[in-house]
Design brief:
This protein has about 260 residues and is an alpha/beta fold. The chain has a single domain, classed as Purple Acid Phosphatase, chain A, domain 2 (4-Layer Sandwich). The protein is about 25% helix and about 25% strand. The chain contains 6 helices and 14 strands. The strands form 3 sheets. The chain has a 6-stranded mixed beta sheet with strand order 5-4-3-1-13-14, covered by helices on one side. A 6-stranded mixed beta sheet has the order 6-7-8-9-11-10, with helices on one face. Strands 2-12 form a two-stranded parallel ribbon. Helix 1 packs parallel to helix 2. The longest helix has 15 residues.
Length: about 260
Amino acid sequence: MKVLIIGDVVGRSGLNRLNYELQKRKNEVDFCIVNGENSASGRGLRVKEYNEILNDGADVITMGNHMYYRKEMANEYKKLEKLAIPANITNLIGNKNVIVEKNGIKIGVINLIGKFAMGEMIEKNITNAFDVVIEQIKILNEAKVDYIFVDFHAEATAEKIAMGYFLCDKVNCVYGTHTHVQTSDEKILDGGMAYITDVGMTGPKDSVLGLKKEIAIQRFITGEYLHYECSNNDAIFNAIEVEFDDKTKKAISIKRINE
């Protein structure tokens, strides 16, 4: 089985690039997971973007800290059956895991959010990701899934690496999102689990993590808060492609895509 995992999709240019890449690769991969928490102009996700990403060919969409930007979505997340929100969030209701059966294979996806440097709102409203993920793995194992993927949306590199080692004999793949900068530490850990610290971003190349660079520079120079404006130039495409042995369910390759 070959799985395509796509890093944080940012804004309209990111969505356009996502559509292009998924159409191009639709016969090359068996399953696709997309982080969509920046798809609505860089600030959250709406039902519109949820449907667009699924129509493009994604099987599951994961989220992150930007789910707070769309207050109108607070009561909508739970209605979106292929959307996983961080399972350790305490003040929003949504799917703590998503199970999709495709081609006779059951795949479970867990989304978690990190604690360190994620902002006061996150720190006040989460429980321990390391405890929660074990609870969710138990639920997925009871559902007899064939594969488990974990999107750990976190800022701290150490936190993500620790999660990778913590789960190396419990799931099939742990990957980081959130920083929008792809790391070059993809590996297969003992036990056959695929890992990377951050998948990266599918979003505007000429930007600061998706934000118009002029605004980002001004923020750093003056320290003042300026309204977020998403860049809208041609997008880069960051993803990983993980291939598994169908019999053992162990990862046999993990490849970074940075185009």
